[in-house]
Amino acid sequence: MKILDSSGLTDFLATVDREFNLTLPVIDASGCRIYGTLQAGTPALHGGALLAKPTSLFFPQEEDVHVEGGGDSEPPPEKQLLAIGFTPKDLLCLGFIDRFFSDGFRDDIYFRRRQGALIAAVSGYVGADGGFIPPAFGNCDFEFIFDGKNWIINPYSEAGRGIAALIPYDAPIDALSQVMAEVERYVDEDAAIIKKASQILMADLVPDSFWEEIAASCILCTGCNLVCPTCTCFGVRDWRDADGFSRSRMWDSCQLDGFAREAGGHNPLGTEALRTRRRIHHKLAADMTKWGEMGCFTCGRCDAVCPTGIGIVAVARKMVERFQHNLS
Amino acid sequence: MKRTLTICPYCGTGCALWLLTENGRAVGVEPVREHPVSRGGLCVKGWNAAAFINHPERLKTPLVRKDGVLTPATWDEALDRVVSGIRDLQRLHGNDAMMFASSAKATNEENYLLMKLARAVFGTNNIDHCARLCHSSTVTGLAQTFGSGAMTNSVDSIEHADLIFVIGSNTTEQHPLIGTRILKAVQNGAKLIVADNRLIRLARHADIHIRHKNGSDVALLLAMMNQIQTDGLADQEFIESRTEGFAEFQDSFASWTPQAAAAITGVDPSVMADAARLYASAKSALIFYSMGITQHSHGVDNVRCVAALAMMTGNLGREGAGVCPLRGQNNVQGGCDMGALPDLYSGYQKVADPLVRDKFAKVWGCELPSNPGLPLTHAMNAAHDGKIKGMFIMGENPALSDPDQNHAMEALKSLDLLVVQDIFLTETAQLAHVVLPAACYGEKDGTFTNTERRIQLLHKALEPPGEARADWEIVCELACRAGCQGMNYASTAEIMAEAASLTPIYGGVSHERLTLAGLQWPCPASDHSGTPILHRENFTRGKGKFIPVSYRPPMEEPDADYPLMLTTGRTYFHWHTGSMTRRTHLLDREERRSFVEISPIDAASHGIREGGRVTIVSRRGEVTAFARVTGSALPGVLFIPFHFAEGAANVLTNNQLDPESHIPEFKVCAVRIGAAP
Ligand code: SF4
Ligand code: SF4
Ligand code: SF4
């Protein structure tokens, strides 16, 4: 373990920026916090999960899968990618889609970007308004843990240890004692709600009328899917022009009618209520059956992006309020 | 991956978005949590705003018609052809034989420049834009009553209202991120009245849903005012201290009891009375309206009634109380603000006022024409009659968007010179003599003004394709070739500086000052922080003015030959004539083909089944579309979106205009329907 104060952190980031293709949360000239490079703004590790999902580094909104004829092929990146800013929950989401893209087949397009990328998490007292985010203690190459005053750099992989070795200051042996005490006290309410909602759904206790009520507020913006780090559905688009042909894939959304519409026009998920049910049922029940774990790690994004307040935690909370008494 | 902060190119809500680019290509969008309007949300169109940018069909070189065929040409050749073409026809037929159509999709700077080009370089006030087709009734009606034709409050005001009255606006589909604010306000306890005969999403959340007949808004609103007066719920103090003309106005509604109005509106009198009481009893009420109010042959009267209802109950000039016309296009507010209007310079300064004219003439260094120009709708008729000989159209597609399409196509085809500047070869561009390839929103900078008068900065994220150029660069180049020295600008910031110096409501605006939150006009000085709420102490015109109205039926009503009423509009997934959204994979997939909404009762009586092909016929023409049988449609009323060239709703619509705003009656015409063979 290494330790850095905030000016030490700035220097350290500048150092790794020379070695790596660094991306991290920054505040840009407009005052917004986004993923970017050190050239795009000043580092902003405080503030918790960004609205955009960090997994888009490997599975972007749109990318070519096949280009024929003209068009330049992408130059290979010069430096290895180092992505700082995953929350510990984001790491679980990343693990979920790593498995998805490699289970039984290997999605080359995903691993073209994912292969060799280094991941660093950010945790401790870094949440929105200084809230606490329990550290991951693994699942990545190294982690920045803020103890309220300093940054403890905790490496977990060989590569992570190599990067941490660039820091001359060893952390004292008890550097994480306060953080560990906070971890002991920490209660993850969202996770508890989601777990309960999952049990309710698995027990089939939610009537159709509930989904109709929720869906009545959905404006089909698709945001909940597009910000979700565990959503992996994509559509395929073909473009043809004088120079040739290109096929790309782009994020799709199961809230849309066209998502499951059959060629003949029939749609087994033909109503908004059915689709809203499907989105939540998939993550909280179907994934339990398929993977033995939920497809939601309560990263908070769909609740933040949904303009009408029906992100997964909000819906789960309603579900629990109304139906938990039926749970045996 | 690079992120560039810019503004959504679709609706007037004006959400900010990050445009993601990689290797010179647009590859995605991210919402902006810190933005005051969108607050980290986007609708499906915003989320897909990157997808059309690199479409292979983008125009990449100028095209000039040779031997009847549009052929790639150099910029020199194309621009010379435009300038000499305009000069030739003006020499033969006078300056006013030329019409300029500006664009509510283009920036403020570009709108300012095109109106300057028309007036200062080509000496005609024949400049207008598609606001003529959407909110000209608002500009006319609210200017007379309040002194300013813009939304009185900010979107944020929604959180302070305890009642929201939405009339003629499908807000969650057409201004989605404003619609969701309304939904959230209702979740937090605000009351909601929706007047719209379609069962729109907001109606599902409404305390009162009024399904009045198309074209009966005046009767409905007068009946509400009648009830308010009878119940003593009018705000006498506000009427006396802040307004004028109420005494005469009372005659307008005196006989319109809800019982009397029922015959016209088709609504149970008690529903209208309840709505009136609910609205008038609210401490702070906001009215939202859109095309359902404006696109009528009596659109201005509709607007006057809306304004009167708010004034009568003192619902103006405060947080949470106001009149909110929702402007459709991303920059239709700005197009109007910048004077792309035949009778007004930027900032709503009158062409007819010699002092104003002098001011512009001095700065522009030229003589300016004094006779107001033609509204777009009249220009199309004049072209049809051979009086307009040439049109320069920047970023509009009237071949599909104008009423009575066959008439519009004939008019466009009859022109000696048609120049179209656009990003795709639209239906209108296909008819042009010269086509100029333009940059899209992500490929230029400048400003858009959203529906709440918020002036916001765009940032250039990538280069335009091929030889395409930003609209402002093309217009400057044209001016230069036409011999005008005064239209050389190094940047859009310089253009704004000139526009601001001539436009008092933008007087304090400069690109430098525009941070993420932008500035809401009026912003008269560089130390002024903008104006979220209009008419606080006084109305812009001093006192609010009640202007008498009388009910007039639509110009064409159902009869024995054409027994159904047709209304037109947009769907959630497409934008106007679809030149961008129909080239956006996901949006296109959602809504592939032209459809007509029909009630189950009408469907049954006409032997029409869900998804079946139908023919709809009006006195102007006929189209085929696919039936969507839905309880959302009121019996007797059909709805068709106007996006689809292959089932173009505007083949059917009636080119009848409001006498004051010259807006066409898109919302009502008479048709018949039958299963297609
Ligand atoms: S909280 Fe929402 S966005 Fe995050 S993992 Fe769960 S479903 Fe996905
Ligand atoms: S974010 Fe909310 S409104 Fe948008 S699609 Fe998802 S549930 Fe619907
Ligand atoms: S609400 Fe309007 S401005 Fe916002 S993303 Fe949608 S279309 Fe764009």
Name the beta content range of chain B: 15-25%
Mean pLDDT value of chain A:
93
Greatest interface and its residue counts?
Answer: A-B, 49 and 49 residues
Oligomer classification: heterodimer
> How much helicity do the residues of chain B have?
25-40%
**Global Rg of chain A:** 21 Å
| Overall 3D shape of chain B | globular
Strand content of chain A: 15-25%
- Tell me the domain tally of chain A: 2
Ends distance of chain B: 53 Å
- The number of helices of chain A is 11
The poorly predicted ranges of chain B are none
Number of helices of chain B: 23
- The H-and-E topology of chain A, N to C, reads as EHEEEEEHHEEEHHHHHEEHHH
Instruction: Please provide the count of β strands of chain A.
Output: 11
Largest sheet of chain A: 8 strands, mixed
The shape of chain A, in one word, is: globular
Which strands sit side by side, in order, in the main sheet of chain B?
5-4-18-17-16-6-7
Description:
- The complex is a heterodimer of chains A (328) and B (677).
- Chain A has eleven helices and eleven strands.
- Chain A is α/β, with parallel strands linked by helices.
- Chain A has two domains: 185 residues, no CATH class; 137 residues, no CATH class.
- In chain A, helix 6 crosses helix 9, helix 6 crosses helix 11 and helix 7 packs across helix 9.
- Chain A is globular.
- Chain B is of the alpha/beta class and 677 residues long.
- Chain B is built from 23 helices and 30 strands.
- In chain B, the strands form eight sheets. Chain B has a seven-stranded mixed sheet, with helices on both faces. A six-stranded mixed sheet of chain B has the order 24-26-25-30-23-27. Chain B has a five-stranded parallel sheet with strand order 10-9-8-12-13, with helices on both faces.
- In chain B, helix 3 packs parallel to helix 20 and helix 8 runs parallel beside helix 14.
- The longest helix of chain B has 19 residues.
- Chains A and B meet through strand 3 and strand 10 of A and strand 1, strand 2, strand 3, helix 7 and helix 22 of B.
- The structure holds iron/sulfur cluster (SF4) (3 copies).
